[in-house]
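Hello K.,

You asked for the raw outputs rather than the summary table, so here they are, unedited. I folded two proteins back to back in the same session to keep the settings identical. This is the first:
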Amino acid sequence: MSIQPGRSTLDLLPIAPADAAECSIPLVREPIGEAAAAGLAQVFKALGDPVRLRLLSLIGAHQGGEICVCDLTTAFDLTQPTISHHLKVLREAGIITSERRGTWVYYRLVPAALERMAGLLSAPGT
């Protein structure tokens, strides 16, 4: 699937109102539908890589809630194109967002995406 600039994969998934409501219900309370499961699988697949988990942690822990890509590349023994690929996966999953400022790109977390994931994994009654 080709992603258009400025659109995330979750934007491209056809999510009916019922499926959108499913995204806020803990997985252990009610079974989720096919479309919601496909969208969630993309998000969790993006988080299923140690480099991407570290990138997410570095972005979230950085003072001010955002970080320049130049600061992220120095934290890894990986090439810049590899780091960019991992950031693209996280961005397309809707977990992070980016903003270009001159020659640098700054990344920050999408709080609503993290809250949705946390809500899905919460135990019943919490």
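The second followed immediately with the same parameters:
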Amino acid sequence: MAALCPALFGATKLLDFADVQKLPPAPAGRRIAYGSLPDQFGDLRVPKGPGPHPVVVLIHGGCWLESINLDHLGHFAAALIADGYATWSIEYRRVGDGRGGGWPETFDDVLAGFDHLSKIADEAGIDRKRVAIAGHSAGGQLALWVASKRRDSVSGVVSLSGVPDLRGAASSVCGGVIPRLVGREENYAKASPIEMLPIGVPQWIVTATYDDIVPSKWAEQYTAAARNKGDRVQLVTVPDAGHFELIVPTTPAYGQVREAIRAALAVPSK
């Protein structure tokens, strides 16, 4: 894989989504359906060698929109495989897909996708006691949400430039998609992680200093609120990086992401 880092694009040029899309395709995983609809599947990747392997459940971002799927996390998943972790990357119904994306379908899907892991764990050689969830951007919000629902099955959760406060970010993040995602006003309390505290799972909230898509203030505000509610939360601020450096393994930012995931898997689930 060709190296990508901000320096390749000029001293002040950060990666954007187009840069991520230019990466050559990552090695494919084993695609497994967890439901009957087209977007109800996951990609399973398992390291070579004997298990059981710790596993990272991945939830992709893309403003919860149908136009962006899980493919852009392929290299991120491949890097985790190289570290000895299995990965289960979940696809789900999204806003604008014509198949019911939004509340509650998007949320039902990521939960069903997570639950399906237990059905394939033994055959795949996965360690049920070392399960972390990691999500990027919109996927960071969904990762925190799933962890809150399955706290006894999760070692830790890593939010990478996630959106933990849907109500607060509704008018400034993702161009007005959040109200479409949530639907009715009362659903914010059911969908927004900051309104569901305490999550009850160790959390690593990773943010980048130059992220102009999901600014660091959301991570900082959420971390303070979660700690106030008694959650165990580590705020990880990655310097000299933007929104997409966090999911490209050849960037300097990935070192801190890698360490957060390692730490999230270090504590066995209950």
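The chain has nine helices and eight strands.

Happy to rerun anything if the numbers look odd on your end.

Regards,
P.
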